[in-house]
Design brief:
Elements lengths: L3 E5 L6 H13 L3 E5 L4 E3 L9 E3 L2 E2 L5 E4 L7 H12 L3 E3 L2 H8 L1 H10 L7 E4 L5 H7 L4 E5 L8 E4 L2 H13 L6 E5 L7 E8 L2 E9 L14 E5 L3 H13 L4 E9 L2 E8 L5 H7 L3 H10 L5 H12 L3
Amino acid sequence: MVKNLWILSKDNSLGYENSRLIQECVNQAIDVKLVHPDNFDILVNRDDRKSVIYNGESINLPDLLLCRTGSDTDYFSLSIIRQLERLGIKTANNSYAIERVKDKLYAAQILAQNGLPTPKTMLVKFPIKPVYVEKHIGFPCVVKVITGSFGQGVYLSKDSDSFKDLMELVHSLKPPTSIILQEFISYKPGSDLRVWVVGNKVLGAMLRCSTDGNFKANISRGGKGELFPINKEIEFLAKETARVLDLEIAGIDLLFDKDGYKICEANSAPGFEGFEYFCKQNIAKEVIDYCKNLNKSSHFIYKEKHLKDLNY
């Protein structure tokens, strides 16, 4: 049973999600602390329990680390999570899952390898010939930076000319930004589904719709939402996506397609302000309920299996 919990977040202010999670911890008599990656130092030595320093001092470690850094997780943040995992601290999500989901191309590769439906995706390098894009992806196409969230770093190129202009801009950035191209699913542009999964359980689905004619439906961009009925396909795709990406807590985004749905992406630290507001579900309580009873994180299950495969 978890009695002491840290929330790892890069949000300097409490924000909606952190405030709700802290309140739920208080409601359930869990000692909670909001910690920022920049305030940590790590020592690598034999005195493991004193190897984690916060604000210049050794600190008592928690029973569980709830990771809310998401796509902003950098090398330093991952190092903190890994150090705590090495010390036996449970983490949700684990460093392995966070790292693979942060990389949109890698996540798409894993989904495709497991036979799950995704838009056609291509990693590109400069110079990029529009005729090549036309042949393999087609126009319009979606241009994405490798990492990003809340609809940031995602653009729609409607034709060859707009694609050339965008690529000139991207190429001018220093350092150059790695990008992927994706097939544009045009069946219901400007709308998608956000499906919440916690502990292999689908909590609900929200239909998100843009209000300004944009193809991106993120609530953080001013989109609107409503509760959407879950069918077997939605449940299967959401649970399988979370499973193959090793996510215990996930927001899975599905695109409407003429034959059903395609997986847009997965999020390791999804926002839930819009979900709670539009769907009237207590996501914060579901997350803390799961964390409170979490025993062994999937990171250690993976780690032990990986070492066994290597004959260690």
